[in-house]
Amino acid sequence: MDSRMATRVILVLTLFTGLCGANLKGNIALHARAVQSSLGHPQGNAKHAVDGNREADYGKGSCTHTKTEFNPWWRADLGNVYSVYKVAITNRIDCCRERLRGAQIRIGNNLGNNGNNNELVATVDSVFAGTKMFEFKPVKGRYVNIVLPGNDKVLTLCEVEVFAEADKPQYICVPSECSLLLCMLSVTQIFDNQSLPNRTIKKK
Q: Of 169, 164, 204, 165, nearest to 20 (Cα)?
């Protein structure tokens, strides 16, 4: 391969690698392994925040509940490391919605301090009922923590949904209307200033 061809191939790789990268579809925390700092009520199990049910009336049995304690927390294990860019939290609607104010979303791979020292990506700074989305710069991590700093706090979550970007593929990705050969020819035209053959590109 001569230097000109090598340059063309490098340019093609630069132009097209990663064009097929996208966001993973759906909630990757669904049915993830979940734990919390304590169980404050028989039906307030940690798994209820990842059961796929946004029911926000605590009495209907789909929310978590810790004891009243110092720095209560909840954690989901995603099973793999993902580039997380959004977390949705569903808060209670029946009562006590103000309890969630000040809660922190933390993401990372470290289980020191139960994962509560991982990177802080968002804070619940206002009272809301129902579901609220928190978007942030993508952070890589396996564990998603919700921690509520302070004394005499109760943490209740009715659903936690996690959304991540797909990793960029390791192969070359080209637009569907352009074969790799024709794209190479296009790059050749850039370098050689020659006209492409008169041929129609058929979309598949």
A: 169
Q: Is 43 helix (H, G, I), strand (E, B) or coil?
A: coil
Token pair in block for residue 136 = 């942030």
Mean pLDDT for back-to-back runs of 10 residues, the chain (204 residues): 48 41 79 99 97 97 98 99 99 97 99 98 98 98 99 99 76 45 43 44 43
Instruction: Judge contact between 17 and 63, C-beta under 8 A.
Output: no
Query: Which run of H or of E encompasses 9?
Result: helix 3-16
Pick from 177, 155, 142: which is nearest to 104 by CA?
155
How many residues would you count in the chain? 204
Give the architecture (CATH level 2) of 33-165: Sandwich (2.60)
Q: How far is 166 from 2, CA to CA, in rounded Å?
A: 35
